[in-house]
């Protein structure tokens, strides 16, 4: 009450008949401890679910995976507005795991080459497009389009890729990966007529991944 | 800033306003364009201002060291609190100044947008330039046009890196001091940038009409011939074929570059010097790339035949066009299964 009268002279003027009962020179107890139980309860219930807090949206991941796997499907330019690195991380891990099944412990190479490749593509796309592109978007697209390469490395677990069949299969998978990646980049950055120019550096990057799988 | 730094740099108040003035002159957040009408008359070129800044920062550093030394004496005498805080403030100011300076320099000089116009190409243009790089033009009376772009040359250098990697992997080359990828990238980029710079320097000496960008583009497109030759000869191991391609394809791309340079240089001695150097370096690089990364293949092909073949035979081999049917299963299964098969057979 003292706080109201001291800090709000307007209410004091409106209600002048309120008797003065407070004590000026003694500090009033401003902190009223509420019971902690309902406070904790509210906050816990109000917390968002863990996956939402981490930014992992399984439906979007599935949509993007389908866009990659279906090379002739037209890509929606807005799917890459959110940067999602959970999917690409899982795909890199899966690629390393399939290489492990073939006896090649090369996780370091996979992560190193993907980091350097993403950096290179980021610089190139920023130079070639009218609007810029963020590093997360580039990493996300390139990571998702690594999915067909996982098929190639799982094929290499049983069959050798060093024959003519292997060469044709490798070339096909590299083409598939780079076609999907360039399709998504073109639709997201509105670079019509330059799909081949974007697809070629992607093909070189996925060619290096294929080299790891084959040899 | 001047007030807190007064104990350390009280004699440098004169540079305070100039420093502020320079800061005001940067418009547009670190663009490379300086608006001259707002430029302070007393400030000279931006390099002089930067030099003054360096000088000031160095003197502040020296004074900060002196303050730190004094602080140690102060600690010993029990006056730690005040002097410690002061030196910390000075160090903090210095760090802020250095960081601001570095970020401004970075945004001004490492601006990747400077290269943007050189990547503005269409696929049809790149295709036509690739084909033209193999066709030497005889017209040397007036300067031939060179496309000043960097997309094609950069992609060709990366393609050469990929082909080199493929060649090293098929020949099981082992690099002891480094990695395969590092060697390939170092070789290709080192050649492109190093030889371009060297020929540009020679062109400067010989008074040729060519810029650094044009030289980079010319040499980059000249690597198209190298890519073709290496792609074919890393997979078909015939020395005669390689020499034929070396002369034909390598020679065509070298002739094209030589013709362009001759059209832009005056004087027979200068032309001879410049074009002779470029031709020698270009042809020798192709020779080097072929022989440095594939000669092990011959030895391995021999040992895969069976146990009774001598280890290394330096003879050219013909790859059999059709694999005999009996060996087909062994080549389809991968090396692990083959090793298992060999161990089972030996037991």
Automatic annotation (TrEMBL), chain A:
It is found in: Cytoplasmic vesicle, COPII-coated vesicle; Endoplasmic reticulum membrane; Golgi apparatus membrane; Golgi apparatus, cis-Golgi network membrane. Keywords: Endoplasmic reticulum, ER-Golgi transport, Golgi apparatus, Membrane, Protein transport, Transmembrane, Transmembrane helix, Transport. One of its GO terms (biological process) is vesicle fusion with Golgi apparatus. It is a multi-pass membrane protein. The chain crosses the membrane at residues 109-128, 135-159, 165-185, 197-214. One of its GO terms (cellular component) is Golgi membrane. Pfam families: Yip1 (PF04893). Residues 68-212 form the Yip1 domain. InterPro entries: Yip1/4-like, Yip1_dom. Interacts with the COPII coat components Sec23 (SEC23A and/or SEC23B) and Sec24 (SEC24A and/or SEC24B). Interacts with YIF1A. May interact with RAB1A. Interacts with YIPF3 and YIPF4. Belongs to the YIP1 family. PANTHER family: GOLGI MEMBRANE PROTEIN YIP1 (PTHR21236), PROTEIN YIPF5 (PTHR21236:SF6). Plays a role in transport between endoplasmic reticulum and Golgi. In pancreatic beta cells, required to transport proinsulin from endoplasmic reticulum into the Golgi. This is Protein YIPF.
Automatic annotation (TrEMBL), chain B:
GO terms for cellular component: Golgi apparatus; plasma membrane. The keyword Cell membrane applies. InterPro entries: tRNA_Mod/Golgi_Maint (IPR051521). GO terms for biological process: cell differentiation. Residues 1-48 are annotated as: Disordered. The chain crosses the membrane at residues 150-168, 180-203, 215-234, 240-260, 272-293. The keyword Transmembrane helix applies. It is a multi-pass membrane protein. It comes from the Eukaryota. Involved in the maintenance of the Golgi structure. May play a role in hematopoiesis. Belongs to the YIP1 family. PANTHER family: NATURAL KILLER CELL-SPECIFIC ANTIGEN KLIP1, PROTEIN YIPF3. This is Protein YIPF3. It comes from Myotis myotis.
């Amino acid at each position: 009450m003292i706080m109201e009268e001291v800090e709000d002279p307007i209410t004091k003027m409106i209600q002048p008949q309120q008797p003065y009962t407070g004590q000026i020179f003694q500090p009033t107890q401003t902190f009223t401890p509420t019971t902690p139980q309902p406070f904790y309860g509210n906050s816990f219930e109000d917390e968002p679910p863990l996956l939402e807090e981490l930014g992992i949206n399984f439906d979007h991941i599935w949509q993007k995976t389908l866009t990659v796997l279906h090379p002739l499907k037209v890509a929606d330019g807005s799917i890459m507005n959110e940067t999602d690195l959970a999917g690409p991380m899982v795909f890199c891990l899966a690629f390393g795991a399939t290489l492990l099944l073939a006896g090649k412990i090369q996780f370091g190479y996979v992560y190193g080459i993907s980091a350097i490749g993403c950096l290179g593509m980021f610089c190139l796309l920023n130079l070639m497009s009218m609007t810029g592109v963020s590093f997360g978007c580039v990493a996300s697209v390139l990571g998702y389009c690594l999915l067909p390469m996982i098929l190639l490395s799982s094929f290499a677990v049983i069959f050798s890729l060093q024959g003519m069949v292997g060469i044709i299969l490798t070339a096909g998978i590299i083409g598939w990966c780079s076609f999907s990646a360039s399709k998504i980049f073109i639709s997201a950055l509105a670079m019509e007529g330059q799909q081949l120019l974007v697809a070629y550096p992607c093909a070189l990057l996925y060619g290096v991944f294929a080299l790891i799988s084959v040899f | 800033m001047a007030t807190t730094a007064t104990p350390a740099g009280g004699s440098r108040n004169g540079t305070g306003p100039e420093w502020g003035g320079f800061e005001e002159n940067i418009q547009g957040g670190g663009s490379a364009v300086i608006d001259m009408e707002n430029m302070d008359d007393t400030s000279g070129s931006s390099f002089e201002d930067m030099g003054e800044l360096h000088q000031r920062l160095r003197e502040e550093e020296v004074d900060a060291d002196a303050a730190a030394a004094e602080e140690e004496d102060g600690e010993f005498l029990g006056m730690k609190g005040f002097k410690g805080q002061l030196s910390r403030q000075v160090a903090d100011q210095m760090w802020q100044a250095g960081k601001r300076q570095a970020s401004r320099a970075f945004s001004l000089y490492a601006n990747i947008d400077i290269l943007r116009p050189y990547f503005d190409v269409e696929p049809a243009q790149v295709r036509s330039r690739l084909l033209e790089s193999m066709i030497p033009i005889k017209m040397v009376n007036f300067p031939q046009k060179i496309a000043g772009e960097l997309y094609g040359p950069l992609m060709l250098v990366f393609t050469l890196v990929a082909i080199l990697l493929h060649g090293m992997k098929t020949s099981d080359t082992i690099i002891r001091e480094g990695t395969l990828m590092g060697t390939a990238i170092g070789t290709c980029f080192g050649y492109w940038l190093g030889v371009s710079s060297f020929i540009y320097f020679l062109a400067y000496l010989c008074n040729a009409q060519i810029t650094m960008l044009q030289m980079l583009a010319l040499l980059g497109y000249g690597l198209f011939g190298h890519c073709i030759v290496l792609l074919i000869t890393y997979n078909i191991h015939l020395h005669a074929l390689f020499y034929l391609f070396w002369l034909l394809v390598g020679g065509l791309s070298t002739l094209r570059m030589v013709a362009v340079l001759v059209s832009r240089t005056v004087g027979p001695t200068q032309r001879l010097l410049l074009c002779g150097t470029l031709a020698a370096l270009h042809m020798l690089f192709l020779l080097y790339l072929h022989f440095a990364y594939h000669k092990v293949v011959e030895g391995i092909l021999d040992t895969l035949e069976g146990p009774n073949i001598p280890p290394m035979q330096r003879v050219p081999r013909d790859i059999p066009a059709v694999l005999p049917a009996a060996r087909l299963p062994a080549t389809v299964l991968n090396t692990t299964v083959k090793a298992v098969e060999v161990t089972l057979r030996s037991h």
